[in-house]
Predict the 3D structure of the following.
Amino acid sequence: MQYLAIVIPLLVLTWFLLRLALRYFPRLGLLDRPHKYGLKRAPIPYYGGLVIVVAFLISALFWLPWDARLLTFLGLAVLVAVVSFCDDRWGIRPLYRLLVQVTVGVGLFAGGVTVGALPNPLGAEIGLGAVTVGGVAVLSLLVTVLWVVLIMNSLNWSDGIDGMSSGVGTIAALVLFLLAARPHFHSVDQTAVLVMALSLFVILAVFWRYEFPPAKILMGDTGTMFIGFLLAGLAIYSGGKLATAVLVLGFPILDAVWVIARRLLQRKSPFKGDLHHFHHRLLNAGLSKRQAVSAIYLISLFFGLMALVLDSGAKIWALIGMIFVMAVVGFLVVILEVEKSRKKG
């Protein structure tokens, strides 16, 4: 019952902001450019990430216990949103976007939000504080930055189908909230994580309703990068939830790793977009947009639920299981693509 004081007002606020966006974004020219991607449809409102950012910051203003660490965290989130909006609107070179991602990762570390240890399926966690330079835990800094960059880009690259990022983000936020809410499970106060994860879940659930195919509004990089940063930060904000986040976000993470590896092997920039992500392969195999995103939702939800009941070591084995599942699904997709091409021929 205590959470209804957050949920109900935030539901109304997000719905109201979305209605304003749907009405006024076209008048302001805040629309997508379907012709750029060869799509034959009328432009629809873009930059919907602004709704997510504004709603989240309002929820933070009213319901979060403010301190220096939280101020740093939200300040970095706003920086991500501003830069991503500029990228949506005018375009920013990939190198500059990467530099911003690295900067906010370093900022998180400096603000006390760090990856202090890695889960180990064979025993105790692997500490990252042993190697220091000038009092700075170098390995912890490196892993924190890599974690932030990976999650931000994973969420952003997964936005190739309407409703993909908002749906997976909704599931991830819910799982992080449920994990933080477990009684007598944490030695560190989880109040801030609880409020932020719940707020993000509510906002994304409402937004998803408008972005699920056929989308009425799209969030753009403003939304995907902001959500990616929040999820990356929430996973390490008050104690390690790294293994949980890796499981629930396993699909976009593994897709991102595969895409980076493939592009590097082809001697292409890993940040140059293409239409060869796993979700594009599902579409090429004959699935509709709704079928493709629904399949990905089920995978994320299944492994997210597993993350709630398994310990850290077991979660690593579950991730290995996810890799196997994606390999099997990928094999089936290739067979479907070949069969589809054969029928066309």
